[in-house]
Amino acid sequence: MAGKNITGGLRIVSLAPSVTSILLSLGVGRELVGVSRWCKDVADVGSRPAVGDCWKMDLREVMRLRPAILIGSVPFAAETVQKILAEPVAFLAINPRSLVDIFGDIRTLGRLVERRRAAEILIRKMQGGFADEARRRGAARRVRVYCEAWPKPRISSPPWVAELVKIAGGKMVVAAGQRVTDEEVARAAPELIVLAWAATGGRAKVSTVYRNLAWRDVPAVRNGHVVVIRDELLNTPGPPLVRGARELARAIRESAC
Questions:
Q1: DSSP H stretches of helix in the chain
Q2: What is the pTM of this model?
């Protein structure tokens, strides 16, 4: 039957790295028949075909994989959603904002692929990783941190990153997941600036921070505490966040010295 594997499992195409990282961590194998072009950056996708992403894809190519369900993550291009909804295929879009939301999405996907126990194990593993970083921090003073997801327009990192910053020993000093101005960041006086620009890997440009005249008196700039963390470690709401918390903790410790 179309949309089913020989074994009876769903044929799934993932349109987001977070979805792929969760599904593979749950032990999904044959069910995952396609992934987005970014998924290889966060998980071992093997030879699975890459079919674009939530913003741009050839839907005919996707449907040739005979999926029973497409799973992605907000935000989507509206035109892409319209095209998906016109096809005879189920569509699920997750939209996490917090770590609690992310754990809820893991449970949802676990139920979908009949791996509830694996979902609970994955959640406990992630929680344990975060707890390890919190214990290492101890009672040290919290460092003031600004994390950036995009430079033009300037957008701060998502709310779950603010939670990771707190776990790692810092305090996010601007609203998370919002457009912010140079002046707002300057007034917040971060002691550490973290660049994790979406879809750039580790290629965010530190030099743009040091050239910004509005930030010349910001403590992080004066003291040389501007770092790049690979965007998939902070912007992928799934298992990669454990490593992201570890990277944040290292940067926070170094900026506190």
A1: 17-25, 59-63, 78-85, 99-112, 116-137, 159-168, 182-188, 206-210, 219-222, 231-235, 240-256
A2: 0.93
